[in-house]
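Suppose a colleague, Dr. K., hands you the sequence of a protein chain of 635 amino acids and asks what its three-dimensional shape might be. Before reaching for any lab equipment, you can write down a predicted structure in token form. Begin with the sequence itself:
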Amino acid sequence: MFRIKKLDIFIVKQFALLFVGTFFICQFVLMMQFLWRYVDDLIGKGLTLDVMAQFFWYMGLMLMPQAFPLAILLSSLIAFGNLGESSELTAIKAAGISLMQAFRSLIVISILTALVSFYFQNVIGPQANQDFYRLLLGMKQKSPELEIPEGKFYNGIPGSNIYVQKKDLGSGMLYGIMIYRMTGSYEDAAIILADSGMMQATAEKKHLLLTLYSGEWFENMRSQDLANSAAVPYRRETFSTKRILLDFDGEFNLADVNDIASDARAKGLEKILHDIDSIKEFNDSVGHAFYAEALRFNYRRPSLDKKDSLKSIKEARTAKMSFDSIYARLSNNDKQAALKSGLNNIQMTMTDLEFKGDYSEALHRRARNHEIQAIKKFTLSLTCIIFFFIGAPLGAIIRKGGLGVPVIVSVLVFIVYYILDSTGEKMGRDDQWTVWYGMLISTVVLTPLAAFFTYKANNDSVVFNIDHYKYLAMKALGLRTKRHIYRKEVIIEDPKYKEDASLLESINSDIYQYSKAHKLLHWPNPIKVFFREGDDQRIEEINNQLELAIEDLSNSSDKQLLAELNNYPVIDPDAHTRPFKKKWMNVITGLFLPLGIFFYFRMIRFRIRLYKDLRTIRQTSNKIIPLALKFTQEQ
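The predicted structure, expressed as tokens, is then:
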């Protein structure tokens, strides 16, 4: 028992150092990826170091739950890869300790990490999210004049082009100002020149107050404004101080502050579950209100059930009312007025329905966002455990440490997880999938994968044996290897040339009889192929005898004989009889017609190949038999 505890401590030390290092690496990568989204809000704002420190601090707290699973995946894979590469994992198994016993200390750590991740998402993350976006909003509102570049025109303000020759970041002063203001067309443009100026945002953050010093204002006067003053084509004004109010919202609004607090990402699980009920109740009330309004609009009465509507239709038919005849009796002006009124009513109804549809979709989207964030707190925490049962078994199987293969495997696994998770979240948010299905799809896909790798690693199964997969691929495609028989450096026993020659003659005779009895160039019976046992015992016997003769003759030192042995093809005794060795697989293949047709023609190809192989064997044997008899006479 003491030995197991020492082993647990040893494995935890190996894992802990790697986990700390990989966690900071993953955190840095995620923060850099997240930073690019807001780099325009940071550059040129004149922000102090304490504000920047707060920005990165809140960002780090928000991204920590995402870094935990990736850090566990990478560190567990490297840890057990190092143990396997240094043969320490082999020593552990040789001591009678199973792989699951070696995992148990890290399983506890993974569960604790999942709980920490849930705590961050439920308690620390929401508050950090609020503080982050409030800080970001403040940075957007800070120093709007710094958005204007030096030495070129800036058209980010609607209706104006501003040129600034120089800026003073310390005082906020602008020097060498030129402004083009467009009112209706280029002929109506106003040109403002100023020696210096200062720009400030108004209290409601929807306008910019531009104070100009020592300048001139030139403006073309429009013809309708100068009906009585045609002799004045434009006006010119010289000023020492001038204030101009410019429309500019800078992509921010005071309502954003309230939206931050109402965002689902800024709420804990208890708050989300409470608000979901309130949101759904509000959505239902809105739906009932829209329905009642539709009834009043269509039927001009508070309520109209099915019985009343049928009664109205019956009365209209009894009175033999004809709307076409009524319309035909109208004058042309009345007809145009009726058409225009009907068209306006239709357009108003369509606009109203589009508005209500968009509003209803926004309400339901908000409810789905709350459900997504509630489920995500559990799935992201559970991912820490799933990634451990993927990374640790893969490390034990691959047995490669360092930052080479483990990083590649980790990135591939994380890419699969990220694609599934992002796709599911987007589909759930857009109401194309149910929220539960979209948020659980990554967990449902990766959990069986983790169980499979854990099972294979615990049973010492070779999952990443390239030669094994190469063999399966070659067999599926009908490919095969060639013989490579070389002259041996040391020959213990010379070949029995006479017996081998006699055996090859017997094989040639058997091949002749087999080819005569089995018509390999004819199409086989599909019933026998897929629904009956089809082992070809005779070919298997011929192949075994041929391999015995080749193995004995490979002890020869004669180069010509060895070269002829390499001409013998490698035979697959079962390829020409049925697709698979197991009967139930052949039955399923035969019942599934498209797949059955493919394997049927594939087997015909193998029968033709066998026919050619048997002919090659006879030709090669006819060349080797005289050589073997020659060596028999020399002996």
